[in-house]
Prior knowledge:
Number of strands of chain B: 2
Helix content of chain B: over 70%
Mean pLDDT of chain B: 90
Distance between the termini of chain B: 39 Å
Mean pLDDT of chain A: 86
Number of helices of chain B: 11
Strand content of chain A: 15-25%
Strand order of the largest sheet of chain A: 6-7-8-3-9-10
Number of helices of chain A: 10
Oligomer: heterodimer
CATH superfamily of the largest domain in chain A: P-loop containing nucleotide triphosphate hydrolases
Number of strands of chain A: 10
Number of domains of chain A: 2
Distance between the termini of chain A: 31 Å
CATH topology of the largest domain in chain A: Rossmann fold
Number of domains of chain B: 1
Order of helices and strands of chain A: EEEHEEHEHHHHEHEHEEHH
Low-confidence stretches of chain A: none
Low-confidence stretches of chain B: none
Radius of gyration of chain A: 19 Å
Structural class of chain A: alpha/beta
Structural class of chain B: mainly alpha
Shape of chain A: globular
CATH architecture of the largest domain in chain A: 3-Layer(aba) Sandwich
Largest sheet of chain A: 6 strands, mixed
CATH class of the largest domain in chain A: Alpha Beta
Order of helices and strands of chain B: HHHHEEHHHHHHH
Strand content of chain B: under 5%
Helix content of chain A: 25-40%
Shape of chain B: globular
Amino acid sequence: MLDVISVCRNFGGLPALSDVSFSLQRGRVTALIGPNGAGKTTMINCITGVDIPDAGRVDFAGEDITGLPAYRVARLGISRTFQNLKLFPRLSVIDNVLCGLTVQGGQSMLGALLRPPRVRNRERRLRLRAMAALDRFGLTELADWPVDVLAYGDRKRVELARAVVSEPRLILLDEPVAGLNHEETATVAKEIRALRAQGYTLLLVEHDMDLVMRVSDHVVVLDGGRCIAGGTPDEVRRNPLVLEAYLGRTGALA
Amino acid sequence: MTQDFLQFIFSGLTSGAIYALIALGFCVVHNTMGIVNFTQVDFVSLGGMLLYSALFSVGLSMPIALLAAVFGVSLVAMFVERVGIRPARSTDPLVLIFLTIGLSIILRGVMALLWGKNRMAVPSLTSDDPLRLLNAAIMPQTLWILALTAIAIALLAWFYRRTRLGLMMRAVATNPRAAAVVGLPLGRVRMLTFGLAGALGGLAGVLVTPITTLSHDVGVLLGLKGFAAAILGGFGSLPGAIIGGLGLGLLESLSAGYISSAYKDVCAFVVLLLVLFVRPKGLMGR
Lengths: 254, 286
């Protein structure tokens, strides 16, 4: 599905990623873990076109997408959420989610102004899809609120709804439960499993080991910009390298 | 007394509406690109020029010539963005603003070449026989200006709120990074934004040149006033642009009427400065 091949990225001579390779399997949940500064976010930035690798390549469904601009990557069917939320402040919840649907194809100035029935029907259908996504994440009642007045957990769900609404081929979640309480975390875990059951492919970047172990099929471990291990949650849990580099240090392994 | 007052109000609203249209053009571009686009002033002149040519060179009837001129300016504006600004590949506002100043000079030069430097007369939309309202004389052009400006503002509001393209523009305005990652084509949205600003400026030019007479640089002073109006309203705020435009227009005409017409620009700008001393963000700024 997605193949990361020997990707390197330096920031002013400091290697953030060196020679990282891994693959995502269709229909699986892959988790990308590692201590702070391991290069996880840089990695998904390189996948989504927010950042460009200095070397190596990223293939998506057999197509080289290295260095494509972010909107082109999104149009190929890769959507993402952000660690520190990138929503459209002042826009309402429903409008934010509708923006996630713009990948469904462009619109001409004339089409927007004259609104032939074809355009109007399409907009109505898109609106219904956005409403369905709100419903799925329990946001229906908040639809017309501007996102900047929402609680943090609600905003995270808006971002999730925006990432899912276009029915992308691959969803990247950057720390979806950071800052959430137990209850909210459990809901997100349920959502991730539901998405997997629907056949979605997910890449999960997360610090919450409990969540990672519960929802992922495959775990990739980064440390200091290198890929140090990969395998099932159980294999990774027992890998001495991982224990030493990451889990041993934090002692977070349950 | 009331007759004079009404006369001043009407002339203030007329120029105010023009300033508002120009100010809206400034805001529309500022909101998606974060820059002041100085080519906005030339969109005004170009609107008048295209109307003149559509009427007298092509021989179109007034309503069609008007639409053609506005649409033409819009196309030129998109061309300016695509060819003059996007290739710079810069996000530094200062670089982009200087670029628009340069492009503005080029546009003025091209207009001087194509249409000459002489002043030209553009006819009003309809007859020049004044109407009487409570003893005040009102030119039909004044009513056209107010009506078409109101329609343009209503269309703009509807476009922003109700269409997906408008939604895309608002999204790019609030968070360009997120917009790109969600799959909004930034380049195209920016180009269309310029088209929108061009249409607003072009409409202002089409409406105002029958009153001011037409030349290749008629937009410069008007554009400066429109810029001031945008600042008065709170740069970037669309309701602010409208209020700022009308406010500046009224200030000018009332101070010209009751104080001195020689000082009308001075009075208007003194009030503008006072407002900004008290409220630096402008009337509707956030």
